[in-house]
């Protein structure tokens, strides 16, 4: 397997727990060219490495967005959870052996872009990261704060038949499910009380000129599910000089299949034997 397209998705495969300190330490001594992590933000503004807002022990759960960092840290310690802060992760990543290794930081909660940037600047890592988000509002804000760092927008490319529907969706929460849908005409709308603790999904048939300009500069692009990737989408991305990243390959066979489609980076949930760790 060629390593040049390999991205370790949430540091999966490097340790029993994804995005743990142990997984990070093993990943940064591997030859994986790209690492990816997700962030969530506590009630008082501490940034943690977690895909979901809810963290769990065997018997209890705790919401990161609704809890202060002191309560979260106590919960992590009490239940021996392997959850670390973004500050700690960047501290370790900054000391990596392979300086060409890049980190993709996927922001899940809107409204703390300045705090993310401050930590990246603290460790002088601006040239070694990509900002990633399902929230176009976050990337627009980051582009004003940090215009030279590449941005990647995760989105759901809908069929043109559904275009009228996505235009009419403003900011809508799906009942009983922690997902917020953002219609294509509402990529600048205020998220209000739906900013934190949710998984956002931006739905569009085609990216507008403003987002295209933002994403195409500095080697940025888009992130799309492997199940939604089409030849038409790939052609569009290449025409507009957008990096195409795809999630997530479960094994080497699937990695090769996705790679052959002509994508640039493949999110992988496994560690290949050719990648030392």
Structure overview:
It is built from nine helices and 15 strands. It has 277 residues and is an alpha/beta fold. It has a single domain (3-53, 86-268), classed as Phosphatidylinositol (PI) phosphodiesterase (TIM Barrel, Alpha-Beta Barrel). The chain has an eight-stranded parallel beta barrel with strand order 1-2-6-7-8-13-14-15, surrounded by four helices. A four-stranded mixed beta sheet has the order 9-12-11-10. It has a two-stranded antiparallel ribbon with strand order 4-5. A hairpin with a 5-residue loop joins strand 10 and strand 11 (179-182). The protein starts with 5 loop residues before the first strand and ends in a 9-residue tail after the last strand.
């Amino acid at each position: 397997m060629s390593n040049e397209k390999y991205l370790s998705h949430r540091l999966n495969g490097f340790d029993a727990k994804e995005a743990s300190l142990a997984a990070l330490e093993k990943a940064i001594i591997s030859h994986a060219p790209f690492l990816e992590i997700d962030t969530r933000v506590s009630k008082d503004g501490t940034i943690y490495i977690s895909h979901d807002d809810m963290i769990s022990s065997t018997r209890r759960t705790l919401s990161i967005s609704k809890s202060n960092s002191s309560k979260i840290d106590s919960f992590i310690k009490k239940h021996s959870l392997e959850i670390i802060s973004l500050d700690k992760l960047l501290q370790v990543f900054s000391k990596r052996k392979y300086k060409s290794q890049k980190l993709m930081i996927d922001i899940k909660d809107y409204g703390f872009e300045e705090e993310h940037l401050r930590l990246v600047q603290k460790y002088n890592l601006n040239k070694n990261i990509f900002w990633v988000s399902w929230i176009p509002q976050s990337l627009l804000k980051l582009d004003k704060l940090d215009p030279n760092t590449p941005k990647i927008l995760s989105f759901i490319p809908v069929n043109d038949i559904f275009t009228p529907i996505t235009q009419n969706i403003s900011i809508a929460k799906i009942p009983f499910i922690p997902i917020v849908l953002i219609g294509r005409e509402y990529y600048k709308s205020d998220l209000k009380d739906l900013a934190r603790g949710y998984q956002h999904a931006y739905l569009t048939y085609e990216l507008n000129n403003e987002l295209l300009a933002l994403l195409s500069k500095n080697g940025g692009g888009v992130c799309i599910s492997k199940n939604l990737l089409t030849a038409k989408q790939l052609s569009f991305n290449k025409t507009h000089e957008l990096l195409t990243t795809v999630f997530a390959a479960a094994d080497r066979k699937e990695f090769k299949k996705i790679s052959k489609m002509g994508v640039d980076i493949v999110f992988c949930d496994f560690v290949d034997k050719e990648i030392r760790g």
